[in-house]
Design goal:
By secondary structure, the protein is mainly beta. The protein has a single domain, classed as Macroglobulin (MG2) domain (Immunoglobulin-like, Sandwich), CATH 2.60.40.1930. It contains 1 helix and 8 strands, in the order αββββββββ.
């Protein structure tokens, strides 16, 4: 009886440990204009990216072209958008995405992620650093 109980408890424990695969590592940086957060799941290469504007939200109406690029390991990612009437002013988060990407590197060894943002003929380069 004790052996059966032990096996059941051990199985439940292993299931709980096996299901906790949301081990995200977070990289972040900011400039006078932008704040960027990049979270990477070291188990399944899912990532979450958030790009926020730090200035007055009303300024977003004046941004007609906005894009970013980054490099993680051997993989480069990019996105750009053009909006003739500018970006919505109701939310300072301009880009937010979740996706899966094979980065071709051991994510746990990453210390920085180069990130470039371009808008209306302006460019800022950030170095997203690992948050402990």
């Amino acid at each position: 009886m004790k052996k059966s109980l032990f096996i059941i408890l051990l199985t439940l424990l292993l299931l709980l440990v096996g299901c906790s695969k949301n081990d995200y590592i977070v990289f972040s940086d900011e400039t006078d204009n932008w704040k960027v957060s990049f979270s990477l799941n070291s188990y399944d290469s899912k990532y979450k990216l958030s790009v926020s504007y730090k200035g007055p939200s009303q300024d977003l109406i004046n941004i007609q072209q906005l894009g970013y690029s980054f490099k993680v390991g051997t993989v480069e990612g990019e996105r750009s958008e053009s909006r003739a009437k500018g970006f919505p002013t109701n939310n300072k988060v301009v880009f937010e995405e979740e996706s899966t990407m094979n980065f071709g590197t051991n994510e746990k060894n990453l210390k920085t992620i180069p990130f470039k943002i371009e808008w209306n003929n302006n460019v800022e380069e950030l170095e997203l650093t690992l948050i402990d």
